[in-house]
Structure formats: structure tokens, C-alpha cells
Amino acid sequence: MLSYFHLGVFYFLLILVVVPAFGQEPISVGDDKRIIADANVWHELDYSFDTSNLESKNKLAILKEAYEYAAVVPSLGGKSGSYFTKVVLDISQKGQYFVVVNANFIDVGLASYSSPVQPELSTQVFSQLLDDSSPPVLHFQAVTVQTVMANERVELWLFIKAKQFPTPVSITVLDSTEFYRFQKFNNGISIAGITTMFILSLLALLIYSGTRKRVALTCAGYLGIHAIGWMAASGMLGDIVHFPFNTSYWGMLLFPFAIACAAQFVSDLFECKTDHKKLFKFLNTLSLVSVVLGVGMWFMPFSIAYLLSHLLAMFWIVVTIAVGVSMIRQQDFRAKYFLAGNLLYSASLGYYIAAHSQYFGELAYPESVVIFALSLDCLCILLCLTEWFKLKQKEFNRNQYLSRIDSMTQLGNRFSLTECIEALDNYYVIIFIDLDGLKAINDKHGHDEGDKLIIKAASLLQQSFYFLGDIFRSGGDEFVGVLQADSTRETRNVADSALSIVSNVSMELSKQWSDAGVSFGIATSLETKVPSECISLADKRMYQHKAKSKHPRSG
Prior knowledge:
With about 550 residues, the protein is an alpha+beta fold. It contains 15 helices and 15 strands. The strands form 4 sheets. Strands 4-5-10-7-8 form a 5-stranded antiparallel beta sheet. The chain has a 4-stranded antiparallel beta sheet with strand order 3-11-6-9. Strands 13-14-12-15 form a 4-stranded antiparallel beta sheet, sandwiched between helices. Strand 13 and strand 14 form a beta hairpin.
């Protein structure tokens, strides 16, 4: 519905005196009023009225004749069918004026006006389907009235037909300055909001193409169907693609499919299948019901479809806020954007309902406010998706880390060792280490004490070789050191240092466990061609060292 503009000082003063189609007494409208409220303004016309060639003089004569006996309706809000009215405008200044019929859906419309100085009827046929000759205004229809002299009295006839008038149909009269300001603001917000929704849905699709994660696909469906629905409802779709039928009704008919995608997105976002099984079943049921409802609505009267669509919207708002609050309480902070967006969208719907009621009067740009709020909601939904991927990335990194780390010693495991070996360059030293005495300690003192030996050995090796390279636990009591160098000389020096270090580690262990010690073997890249040969050589030397020990303490 349209609203007042802040009326400052204009170049001229527009004065309206309206004689509506009911009663004989004219209604005088003040200078600061530009809206004819929908209160006993419209007359009901029989459904049998033929709307073909509507602009013909015969059809206009029928309308004028019906004016005397057609029933006046209190308001068109919630009604359907054909209605007409007569408005007399006393305009103080000559120029071009715009009459905006504030109806979301118009299948057939006619505007015809004349005046004593312009006795020849000027007619304009308009609708959501045929609006090429009328000024483009999203959500509504506008016709022009041209006056050629000051204080010209214009008699204007308006006829409209629709499957549903969801709200009261007021009439707004604007001068050129007011109209173009309204058109720019109304169309700009709607186009920007719808474009934002489309861009966000495309981003979600791109994310899906790169990740193949279902949550991105359901997000794209959620955002994209909303964008198409509002594009159709606003009349933009019909302006871009000339369909042979009125696509403005599609906004209501597509809405259940958007909710079906939204329910699946919420399920995927919060991983309800594994973490919230009752909510998972509820959302799946809601998706199924929404799809069935969405298909059925195309085959039922639009007035019923309109009602069902709005009931579904109100139910969904309650669901989203409840889910958002519940997830926040569970410290699932993916819900912070989800809840914020839906609260904003809910507030805009409240404003929209207030604007269409009889209690608050005309409020500014309700449709545009909803689209703008929905576009911000869609942005929040995409932010939810990014939060989901951030969480998954953290989980992936954590799993990657855990898959490469030995849980007991916190050293790299065999997988990490393989990666390290594959990355070796020209100069390196491999030291193969095996704990001696582990079995005896396990048998004598228990496995807890044996675990302490392993942990202590790992700690000493890691600290001792910290500046030379990395230590890995390759098996139960086996460790491998990968030490890197930059030259032949440095490789020999590193090998000598490794020999001294591992001997000291063996002595440290024997101080705490008399049966403990280490056997080791050292090999360098100077002796072999590839790392695998170097490891084999170090392993062989370790067993040779164990065999030559005076008191072999096998692990």
C-alpha cells in the first residue's frame, strides 16, 4: 500500500476534491492528503461483465449505467471479482498527474477520464499483464491524468478485476514530482532486494559446485525461490518476460516450495539428522507438507491459496524463531545470524500486516520493506552457511591433526612420518630407535608403568632433537627421527650429534628404570639413494646394535 510523502514546499499546490462512487455528497480532501481510503469507494460489478475491448464506448456506457444501481462494498480487502468507481478531481494546477491503484494483483484494469475542456474520453487499459502503456511501478498500477488548464474538473472512472484483493484498495493521486520520487524509491528498494536475493542464491550454488555439500544446495533453493517469488509478485517477472498470463500470483504459489527448501536448509545447517533427531523428523514432515501444499495450490482457487500461503508463512516464522532461540541456548552460534535475520523478517511482516489493516492508516512502502528485510534475512542465511563451513573446516583440521598425531606421546604417527619422508630433499639423517626393557617393565610393574616409559622416552627425544629435526612414533616401542641438513659436511655433523644425543637419552631412561634403555641405528642420505633405503639401513643397524649389546634388553 502506498503512503504519504513528506510534503515540503513544492512548486505548486495540488488540491483535490473527490466525489466518490457512493452517495450524492462530495467528499472534500484536504490539501495535505493524497490518498482516497478504501471505505465505501468501490462498486461491485457482475461477474458476467465482458472485459474484452474494455476501452470501447459501449463498455464505458455500461459502467456508467451500472453506477446508479451497483452495490457499494465497504472495502475490497479480502474480496475478488470486478469493481469500479467514479472520482471527480478538482485540480488547481495544470500538468500531468498520476493515479495509483494500490492493488497487488490486477488482471484487468481500465482508467477513463474527461473534463469540460477535454470532452473526448481518454482511456488507458492496465493490468499486471498489460502495463506497457502505464508508468512502471512495482507491486501496483499507475495511470496518468493530463490537465490542460488550472482548476480543471476531471471525471475519472476506474475499473479493476482480480482473483484476489488481499488488502484494501486505496487510490493515491500524485503530482509528477511526488510520483517520480515514489517510483524511484519503491522500485529501487524492490529491485535491489530481489537482486540481492538472486546474487546470494548464486553464491550458494557456487559454493555447492565446489563442495558438493547439500546444505549449500538447500540454501540456494531457499534464497532463489524467494527471489523468484517476489520477482513475480512485484510484477518484475512479467515486465521482463511477457507471459500470456498474470505471473504476479506466482509469489504466493511458489512460497510453499521456498519453505520446503528452508526447512531442509535448517535441518542441514544444524545437523539435525545426527544431533536433533526429533527436529529432523519435524522439518522433514514440514518439507513434505509444504511440497504437497505447493503443488495443490496451483489447482485451487487463489483466495484459498493466498490464505494457506500466509498461514504457512506465520507458522514458519514461529518455527524459525523457536529453532533459533533453542540453538542459541545450546550455544550453537551458527544460530546467531539465523535468529537475527528471522527476527528482522518477522518485524517487517508485522509492519506489512499493520499497513494493510484499518487501524494504522497508510504506512510507507510495506511491500518494499518486506523485500528489503527479506534480502537482509537472506544475507544472514548465507552467513549461517559460511559459519557452517567454518565449523566444518575446524573439525576437518582437528581430525587431520588427530589423524597425524599419536595420542599417547603427542608425537607424529606413522602417517606423519610417511609425509615427512616424501618431502625429504638431498641431505638428511634417519635414526631408528627401539626401547629396550619395555616388556620386562610391563611384566614386573604393569602396563601403566610401561606407558610412562614410552611417554618419558618420547618427551626426552622430542626435547633433545628439537633443533635438528622431528621425532615420530612409528610403532609400540619404536621411534624414528628425521633430521635434515644442508650439505655433506653438515649431514655428517648431524649424524655425530644424533649418536651423542640418543646415548644420553638411553642413560636418562636407565636412571629411572634400571631395565630400560634404547637400541638405535643411524643412516644418512650420503649412504643411500632414496629415503626408503635410508630407513631400511637405519633399521638394520638398530638390530645390529641391539644384538651387540652386552645386556640386550628386548622390548
